[in-house]
Each structure stands twice: as C-alpha cells, then as structure tokens.
C-alpha cells in the first residue's frame, strides 16, 4: 500500500479548513492577535517595511499590513491562495511548504506567523528558517496556542488527518526562540475555556457586567496571568 505524503495530507486539510472557516469568518481570537501585531508594527513607526507572513491562510491579515510596507504571504494551501490572489492583488502570495520554499535573498524587516508553530513537525528548524529570512535586528511577531490553557481548561477535538498538533507552553516557546532571537515580549491573550472552573471565570454571563464596570481591565489581568488561549511573542533577530 502506497503511503500518502505527509505534506500532501496537510495541504489537503488546510485547503479544506481555510475554505470552510477563515474565508468566511475571522474569530475573536484572531482579531485579538491582529490587534497586538498592528500595535507592534505601529510602534516601529515605519511605512517602508518588507513584511513576510508565514502561514497566511486565507490572507485575511495581509491587507491590514499594507500601510506598513510591502507584503508577501505564504501558505501551504495552494487552492486558497489562488482565490486570495484575485481578492488582494497588492500582496505577493507564494504557495508551498515553507520549509522548502526559496523566497529570495532580500531580507525581510518583519516576519509574522500566527498559529503556525504548533502545526509544523520540526519546530526548531522552523524557527531557524524564520530567522534566516530576517535581517539582523529584524522582528519576529508570532502567535501560537497556549498549551497550559488548552490542555487544562478546554476540550479540543482530536486532530484530523493531516493536522499536526504540537502546542507549547510559555517556557517552551521562549526556549525555542532564544537561540536565534532576543525575546522582547511574551504574554498571553484571549482568555477562553470550555471546562472546569475557568469556564465559569470566562463565562459571558459573569464577564458582561464586569466589563460594563471595569472595561477590558479584567480580561487584560487574566491575559497577564498567562490565562489566554494564545501566546504572543515579539522577538528581535540576533546580530
């Protein structure tokens, strides 16, 4: 019996998943990630950046990056990117396995990758390749699932064929990044839970009146305590 190429399985999964989800709806977790990334980009104070988004999926974030400079997006989902090119012609989209792609020798000022790390087989090699596309001193803006929160406070369906799942903790993420990067910021966002005590803590019924009184301060406190669904890392490539 012939074995199916793992990358082909992953490509098939992500083409289907993006077509069913990201091309139709952007969830609150993603919107919060984008807010953080845009704040980081604004803090750089430039509009001439060369930006690469690795794992851009449906390309939903790429148009929001254009005010900061030139944008290249890459993803394994070739069918999805074929449609994205029609919707967002101002962005250069390159489909393929990032670990085998050659994106040229011109270094990028910023590399952005949202919820991709947990879906690659060799995470240290992935981080090294991210660094290889950055100029010395360039910035990595990364989001990935928070293993502590997902394992303890959430019920998650088993991975589908072609879906890799290798969540990391905050400490594991720092260890992964440190050989290539100086970690400038590392925190969690988007508190979310569907089981245990944290389900009550994060319930809409409890948080709606608290938000009316305290605004986003309670949510930000939970994020600062590491209780967010997502880990966000801002890192600078070492010279």
Automatic annotation (TrEMBL):
GO terms for molecular function: methyltransferase activity. Keywords: Methyltransferase, Transferase, Ubiquinone. InterPro entries: SAM-dependent_MTases_sf. SUPFAM superfamilies: S-adenosyl-L-methionine-dependent methyltransferases. It holds the Pfam family Methyltransf_23. Coiled coil: none annotated. Transmembrane segments: none annotated. CDD domains: AdoMet_MTases. GO terms for biological process: methylation. It comes from the Bacteria. This is Putative 3-demethylubiquinone-9 3-methyltransferase. It comes from Mesorhizobium alhagi CCNWXJ12-2.
């Amino acid at each position: 019996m012939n074995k199916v190429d793992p990358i082909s399985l992953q490509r098939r999964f992500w083409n289907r998943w993006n077509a069913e989800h990201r091309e139709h709806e952007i969830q609150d977790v993603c919107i919060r990630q984008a807010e953080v990334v845009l704040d980081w980009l604004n803090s750089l104070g430039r509009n001439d950046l060369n930006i690469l988004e690795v794992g851009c999926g449906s390309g939903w974030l790429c148009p929001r990056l254009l005010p900061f400079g030139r944008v290249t997006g890459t993803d394994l989902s070739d069918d999805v990117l074929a449609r994205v090119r029609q919707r967002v012609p101002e962005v250069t989209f390159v489909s393929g396995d990032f670990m085998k792609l050659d994106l040229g020798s011109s270094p990028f000022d910023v590399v952005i990758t949202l919820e991709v790390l947990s879906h690659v087989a060799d995470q240290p090699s992935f981080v090294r390749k991210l660094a290889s596309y950055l100029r010395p001193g360039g910035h990595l803006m990364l989001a990935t699932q928070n293993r502590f929160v997902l394992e303890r406070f959430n019920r998650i369906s088993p991975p589908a064929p072609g879906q890799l799942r290798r969540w990391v903790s905050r400490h594991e993420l720092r260890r992964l990044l440190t050989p290539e990067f100086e970690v400038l910021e590392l925190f969690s966002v988007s508190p979310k839970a569907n089981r245990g005590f944290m389900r009550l803590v994060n319930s809409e019924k409890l948080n709606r009146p608290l938000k009316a009184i305290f605004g986003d301060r309670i949510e930000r406190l939970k994020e600062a305590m590491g209780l967010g669904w997502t880990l966000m890392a801002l890192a600078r490539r070492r010279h």
